[in-house]
Amino acid sequence: MADESSTQAKAPNLPDIGIVGRSELWTQIVLTYQRTCLSKGFFACTSAEFSPEMDQFQARQQTLPAGLILRLKWQDLCVRCGAAISENGMRNMTQDQDRALSIIMRTFEAQIKDLEKTAVNDSDRLECNIARLYVRSFYFLKQDKASVASSFDKIQEIARHIIADVEKLVHQTSNPVSIPYYIASALLFASYALLRILKSTIPFLSGETEEARTAFFLAISLTKRLSIDTNDMCSKSVTYLTQLWNSSKAFKRADGTDQLVLRARSRLSNSHVVDAIIWWREEFDPHFKAQMRTLKNSALDPSGSSAQSNDAAPDMQQQPIMNFGDDSIFDFDYFMGADLPFSQDLFNFPGLDNADSNNT
Fold first, then answer.
1. Residue 246 lies in a domain
2. pLDDT (tens digit, 9 = 90+) per residue, 143-156?
3. What is the pTM for the complete model shown?
4. Of 33, 112, 132, 159, which cross-links 190 as Cys (Cβ 3.0–4.6 Å)?
């Protein structure tokens, strides 16, 4: 009788059947998914959550190149940081939640710093800075006014590093538009962050105001070079950033003081980008203004009788309907979050309460 061991199928040699290549491909897919979610401000899963068995996950990681494992760890840290901050709460935060937010960010920044020691080239260091930018962007959610200056200083520091890294990458690339999407998104994150900080009256603790201003204009120039279409995110952002920079109303209250607290707060580390788009739309977007007038008129007269009346005002008769097919209304997946892209008093319509009381 043949030896029993000789009849058993031997475990395949992983490199011989292409498992290594498949593992690398799967890791790149996971990274693409995570990067896309982070750039949009959506929740994502960690790499471990894609593997039902931890043994399989660990075995697959052993076959990956060190640089790819490093990128996966950085992305996982960003994903876990967003999940922890969301669980802590991002809207109407209490003082305890505000302090907890700082603790969470310091914890994840320390982990990113530990991983940074294993970076061996400029590409690795760029990935590290992008991860640090995602984490530090959460400082915009803080509502403790006493810590605003230190928070802004940390954000502008890493934003300038990102812009410098992207500039170096653009000069090294023969075709800048081939730069990966997530790097372009990081450039936009940094640009909108610097815009908000520079438009405020908060002094720079580091005294690097001019350096930040120079980096901001450099970012606009780089964004132009990364645009491939007149209607893509980079092209639109050039318009948004330029017009908001020249605006005297952007990020200001009615009395001219700084509006430091974000109104859009549900897009994780992307919240400050969406918030800036809200400011731009309220001041410069004609579609948005027309749609807001339509909403006001509909709220004041739900039956629409005034629009059918001959005595109705001309502007009431000619109001455009809400056009949700308009591409501009879906910039940055505009309505996919819980954010209201309106000022707080937008729906305080004069006479509406009286009309309701008369109907009752």
1. yes
2. 888 889 999 999 99
3. 0.78
4. 159
